[in-house]
Write a structure and sequence with these properties.
The chain is an all-alpha fold and 296 residues long. The protein has 12 helices and no strands.
Length: 296
């Protein structure tokens, strides 16, 4: 690839970034997500430095004498039904919700992109077989599919990740397939084929990079859906198990005490809402920034 082409690609991405920065709501969403990432990294560092003692003493240790205390200067989010600090538990839960949602969508993107690229590039029988399988998965609600997988294989972290990942593969497969169909007959693809490039090289070097824009947008929105699905599974008792802090399980455990302490349900629910809202705002901003039709 020539230097001029590389500079053009860099300028296209820089132009998309400039347009994204003009979208205030998208930048607010990006700022909140960056804050969550920083807090998640901070909790990991604290656990490493303290050897897990801070987590055991302040995050999961119970103190029933102080249960259901409301927000105060000492505990800004109050204490839960077991006397644990809700602020610390909400912060420590970020790593699970954000990490699991991101990893699950990353797995879906890789597998879905591969299947979608094969279906769109080769067409005919390959396309029919792959997309009919994807249609079968799409006919089952993603949450119901995840519930079935976790219920069948058990409530472990790995099973939850795989359940969410499998449920989102068809979405990315269809997204990539649609993009591949629009670019596979372009002149530069024919030129690469005429120069003797293999199908794998054409797909990986020329087709997939031109499908990144819709894939990035769909992935940002997919992470929001994955976090909501993880919270839903935990709420139903099929996700992350107590005493490990997770927003969905915190809501599930607190619902019996909602009349005695409003804060134990409002705070985790608010975190779920703000995180998903931020990801959706960022996804909408990325869609507008990466759409060449909206350049002007």
């Amino acid at each position: 690839m020539s230097t001029a082409v590389k500079k053009t690609q860099r300028s296209l991405w820089m132009d998309a970034w400039r347009r994204l920065k003009k979208n205030r709501l998208a930048m607010v969403g990006l700022g909140f997500i960056v804050l969550l990432v920083i807090l998640a990294i901070f909790t990991v560092v604290v656990d490493i430095v303290t050897g897990g003692t801070f987590y055991e003493e302040h995050v999961i240790k119970q103190n029933l004498r102080l249960r259901l205390q409301g927000p105060s200067l000492e505990h800004i989010f109050g204490l839960d039904e077991f006397g644990r600090d809700i602020f610390l538990r909400v912060i420590w839960a970020i790593r699970y919700s954000l990490f699991m949602g991101t990893v699950a969508i990353a797995i879906s993107v890789v597998i879905g992109s591969f299947l979608g690229a094969l279906a769109g590039f080769y067409g005919k029988i390959t396309d029919n077989v792959i997309m009919r399988i994807m249609d079968i998965f799409l006919a089952i609600p993603s949450m119901l599919l995840a519930l079935a997988i976790v219920a069948a294989f058990g409530t472990s972290l790995t099973n939850v990740l795989m359940a969410i990942a499998i449920s989102y593969i068809p979405t990315f497969a269809r997204t990539v397939r649609a993009s591949v169909l629009t670019v596979k007959d372009q002149e530069y693809i024919e030129a690469a084929r005429a120069l003797g490039a293999s199908d794998a090289r054409i797909i990986c070097k020329y087709i997939i990079p031109n499908c990144l824009a819709p894939l990035i947008v769909q992935a940002s929105l997919g992470v929001a859906g994955a976090i909501l699905s993880i919270a839903g599974l935990s709420f139903l008792g099929l996700g992350i198990q107590p005493p490990t802090p997770e927003w969905g399980s915190m809501l599930s455990n607190a619902r019996s005490y909602i009349r005695d302490g409003w804060h134990i349900t409002v705070i985790p629910g608010l975190m779920i809402m703000l995180t998903i809202l931020s990801l959706n705002l960022l996804g909408d901003g990325l869609r507008d920034a990466l759409d060449p039709r909206l350049k002007n």
